[in-house]
Amino acid sequence: MAGRIRAGFDMLGLAMCGAAAVLFFIRSPWTTLPAVVLIGLALVRALSTRVEARREEDRAFTQAFGRMVGALRPWAWRFTNWVRNRMTWVRERRRYKVFVCPGCHLHQRVPRGQGRVRIRCRNCGTSFEGKA
Ligand SMILES: [Zn+2]
Question: First vs last Cα of the chain: how many Å apart?
Answer without folding.
Answer: 82
